[in-house]
Amino acid sequence: MDLKQLEYIVKISEEGNITKASQKLFISQPALNQQLLKLENDLGVPLFNRNKNNLTLTYAGEIYIENANKILNIKKDTYKMISDISNSNKGKISVGFTPERGSDMFSYIYPKFHKRYPNISINPIENKSNDLENLVSNGTLDIAFTSLPNSSYSNNPKIHLLNEKLVLIISKNNHLCEELLSSSYKDGFIDISLLKSENFIMLKKDSTLREIIDDTLFKYNFHPNILLESSSTYTVTNMVKNNLGYSIVPFYYAKNNPDLMYFNLGSYPSWNIFASYKKNSYLSNSLQYLIDLTKEYLENSYY
Question: Which range has the worst mean pLDDT, 72-86, 92-106, 193-207, 223-237?
Answer without folding.
Answer: 72-86
